[in-house]
Amino acid sequence: MPFRAHFDCLWCGTPHVCRGPDDLEGWAQLCPECVGKAGDNGFLRFRLRQALTERGAARASETPPLGSSDDDVDASPVRPVSVAAATPARDRDAEMLAYYEARAPEYDDWYLRRGRYARGPIHDAAWDAELDAAGRWLDDLPIRGEIVELAAGTGWWSPLLASKGELSLYDAASAPLERARGRLVAHGLRAHLHVRDAWAEPDRQVDAVFTGFWLSHVPRDRLDAFLGVVRRWLKPGGTFAFIDSLFDPQSSAADHPTPADDASVRRLDDGREFTIVKVYHEPRDLDAALSGTGFRDPSVTTTGRFFLTGFARAADAR
Ligand SMILES: C[S@@+](CC[C@H](N)C(=O)[O-])C[C@H]1O[C@@H](n2cnc3c(N)ncnc32)[C@H](O)[C@@H]1O
User: Fold this and answer.
1) How far is the CA of 153 from the centre of ligand 1 (A)?
2) Which residue from 24, 26, 63, 239 puts its CA 20 to 30 A from 35's CA?
3) Residue with the nearest Cα to atom 24 of ligand 1?
4) Quick check: pTM over 0.85?
5) How many distinct structural domains can be found in the chain?
């Protein structure tokens, strides 16, 4: 995440102005009070670790840190003008991660149509029916053996996957993973949970990879590269399965603006705003991308209004 001379604390929202470009607060975008509480809180510890690494890297390279120029300094750091091509990839990725760290306690409201995500009984019933259909589709897939779930978040799909094989679930943010851990424990299921970037090169080959609502966070121009990472995770013949978003105006929260240019502005319950990459792919585009990146028999369909479901097998090594 870039250094910010003044910002609203990512954890509590309090505005803070840094004394100088070396202030850890500015790298972590946490106010001094939250920095002081980092010992008791996984998210704060994670932000501080990242901040130390990023400050160290900036010092080592002796180049001005990203975001330290006047142009980039913004009183509300989580509200950049646009996330589209003009925004450096590192900033976009960091903002998305900060968003999901902060959203972890309220993430499942989206699935459960609670609070700002409740859209009235008719829409919500349609949503529930399609969510059930997506779950049944996943349950019917022939997935077994060693399974990797990338960008697993709060683990909505993890109990189902953990009941099919030996599941490793990864996410780059620790707060959602903690929720996934609680969900698995509540189901009496075992899995391996680790903080890990979805873009990190695989350290082994497995029988199946699953992503839920992650391909839509991969920028269009990086989709083939990401599918290449998935292909390298898989043994020949292994399964890639995903569930993702179709665009529907009722899918997101009532106070979220209409997405444009593959970007969505998202608000938390406390009003903090983030702009993230959100690409609504057409099934045929994903079919073509899978065929072109080492997969065979791709099948990308929809549940109707809200969800995409996709499946492909890793082709034999070329
Ligand atoms: C839309 S949520 C999906 C969560 C879950 N897969 C689901 O289906 O409910 C996207 C997830 O991607 C995670 N994420 C963001 N950037 C990431 C990255 N570079 N590597 C791994 N996970 C990342 C976020 O922390 C968040 O949990």
Assistant:
1) 5
2) 63
3) 100
4) no
5) 2
